[in-house]
Amino acid sequence: MAIDKIFEIFRTARMTVAEKDMVAEALLAILVLWQVRNHNIMDSRAEGSDLGFAPQSFRSIHDLDSMSGYAKVVDRCFGQPSLELREAILALSHRVHIDPIMENFFASVAEILLNTAEHPAGFDISELFDKFRASLAPQAGLDGIFQTPEDLAELMVYLVDPKPGDTIFDPVCGSGQLLLQAGKYLGKDGCDLGNASLSGWDRSRNLAKITSWTFLIHGLDPRSISCSDAFASREPYLKHDVVLANPPFSTADWDRDAFAKSEFAVFGVPPQSNADFAFLQVVIGSLKETGRGAVVVPSGMLFRKGTEGEIRKKIVSARLVDMIVALPTSAQKPRSISLYLLVIDKQKKDPSILFVDGTKACEEIVPQGHTLRALGECIRGVHGEDYQHSFPSRLVGHHEIEQNDFDLSVTRYLFSEKGERRDLNIIYTEYAQVNHDLDRLQKELESYLAAELDDGR
């Protein structure tokens, strides 16, 4: 297959990480520009988007060092009439003089395309684009932010069950995987993705740009992706039917002052050293009164005390948490900590919370490799006992949660009647998280004391 051949050449090329990053981004730019020009995508759709260039006139921008030189080449390439994709890439290879290996890569791509039917007759440009977009994710060009695993994105979308006509939003969209999965889910119901209401923010200009390109390649509106800080207040602020998020964990690099002044800080302002509960409140605050949300959270959010414990207590008491799902190991990569899925339902009246342990018996569920899909189907009761093994779960009332000081640790509520011992890996993970928090607090205290001593001099 042509796409596999192209990516194999890229994978095995003797280029540095920075060179591969540059080559991949240049190829993505060509695919987007070619898509805009040769498929008559309306200028009005591209105009005003955060694409990183002006596709209606094919002008380059110059504030992105890794793109400016290549964008100029693309401009010249697309100045020719009736240019085919392979011709644009071949023209690019003739103008790349930074490194012979990079020049050879583009020449090889053009040669492969010469023997391949042009899109849409047997060559899927979106598939080629997605393959190279994924290769960017671990690199510095995308701020080191990885993509949400496809099966985890599928589970999150499956549990919130978006409907045609719903507005779907991700306040920290990164590479846009959750929004794309939501679009794919809606497409199964015959929804016209060109009219789907999918939108996202990311504070990284480069991430917003790449995700805008991704939307355009997949027939979605690139104007719905913007470079914005999730914590900034907006008037008027749009509410959504569905909100999905996989935010960065335990980050101290966030605008706490902006959050404190925003409409999101309803349940309290978390410490500067950890924005986890700020992200969660952005998800809650972005939902309509009938909205549904799903957000990935680290284990510490379920049991930490202090200010964060008070915020958690208020959120639970407001009857917003529908379920908490302990995710299997397959969903945790490349992170090395235990992950949980917290599902929000703003119209629920029952204060009980469904706790599900998806970490047990996962490997025994068939078909292999579909653990999260099976987990979602079990939760929603689509197959129920059709599976050889079910996942431990329990609906826990508000009174019991209150008695446990609003600790939401899944293993706390899923003991067997025989007093089953907690899994050693889970205990170790919680122990490591507590040590991490203690270390963070100690550094924060030392910084505070040092500042006080400086002020007293």
Keywords:
alpha/beta; 9 strands; nine-stranded mixed sheet; 457 residues
Could you walk me through the main structural features you see in this protein, from its secondary elements to its overall organization?
Helices cover 45% and strands 12% of the residues. By secondary structure, it is an alpha/beta fold. It folds into two domains: 2-136, no CATH class; 150-413, Rossmann fold. β1 (167-170), α9 (177-187) and β2 form a beta-alpha-beta unit.
Please write out the topology.
Blueprint (H helix, E strand, L loop, with lengths): L1 H11 L4 H22 L4 H4 L18 H13 L7 H11 L4 H15 L10 H12 L13 H11 L6 E4 L6 H11 L9 E6 L2 H13 L7 E3 L12 E6 L10 H6 L14 H10 L1 E12 L7 H12 L3 E6 L12 E7 L7 E5 L13 H10 L12 E4 L1 H6 L6 H4 L10 H33 L1
Parallel strand pairs: 1-2, 1-4, 2-3, 4-5, 6-8
Antiparallel strand pairs: 5-7, 6-7, 8-9
Helix pairs in contact: 1-6, 2-4, 2-7, 2-10, 4-5, 5-6, 8-9, 8-14
Fraction of residues in helix: 40-55%
CATH superfamily grouping of the largest domain: Vaccinia Virus protein VP39
Unreliable stretches covering 5 or more consecutive residues: 41-71, 118-122, 139-144, 361-368, 382-389, 416-421
Biggest sheet descriptor: 9 strands, mixed
Shape: globular
Mean pLDDT: 75
SSE arrangement, N to C: HHHHHHHHEHEHEEHHEHEEEHEHHH
Overall structural domain count: 2
Query: Which structural class best describes the helix and strand composition?
Result: alpha/beta
Strand proportion, as a percent range, falls in: 5-15%
Strand order of the largest sheet: 3-2-1-4-5-7-6-8-9
Number of strands: 9
CATH architecture of the largest domain: 3-Layer(aba) Sandwich
**What CATH first level of the largest domain would be assigned?**
Alpha Beta
Q: How large is the count of helical segments?
A: 17
Cα distance spanning the termini:
71 Å
Radius of gyration, in angstroms, nearest whole number: 24 Å
The CATH topology name of the largest domain reads Rossmann fold
